[in-house]
Amino acid sequence: MARKNGIAELGEVMQLAFVPPDFMAAVKHWTEIMGVGPFFLMEGIHLEDMRYKGQPTEAVFDLALAYWGDVQIELIRPRDNHPSIYSGEYAEVGGGLHHVCILVDDIEEAYDVCREQGAKIVIEGSLGDSQVIYVDPGSGPGGLVEILQQGEGGPGLFAMIKDAGKDWDGSDPLRSL
């Protein structure tokens, strides 16, 4: 198999992610104005072996996921000020697009491609058997790319969230997982 040349060749964008200044206002906007939902909330997430710019960090965050057709929408709420992409220089996007996400089958190949392209790894870690890296390909805030190698339960979780939105009637817009 030939080596993939650019980061975009690793996979298609499957998610648009935001770190809104007012998390609940963003949920309301996406559910009531955009008609996207329901959102599924995961609270108190801390990646295992989480590193920010190569250094360990104890950053904790919440996230809510929903689907707009085939595109996943992620809303992120930082829970602390530990070094991460959710505070400081990478959070300065005024509620606009924070990052996109692509899924890969081989995270090591993604690391190699990112190194070859000169992209900086800004966050890395794992959640169960899922592994993730966030890279800055050089455009700065708002231009981050999340690269996720899903673990065994990931596809089923994403499918459940997507299915919940197919005939959603607007009730119970924010549901806990």
UniProtKB/TrEMBL annotation:
Q: Does the UniProt entry include the keyword Phosphoprotein? A: no
Q: Which Pfam families match?
A: Glyoxalase_4
List, for all copies, the residue spans of the domain called VOC: 12-151
Gene3D superfamilies cross-referenced by the UniProt entry: 2,3-Dihydroxybiphenyl 1,2-Dioxygenase, domain 1 (3.10.180.10)
Keyword annotations from UniProtKB, A to Z: Metal-binding
The molecule here is called VOC family protein
What is the phylogenetic placement of the source species in the record? Bacteria, Pseudomonadati, Pseudomonadota, Alphaproteobacteria, Sphingomonadales
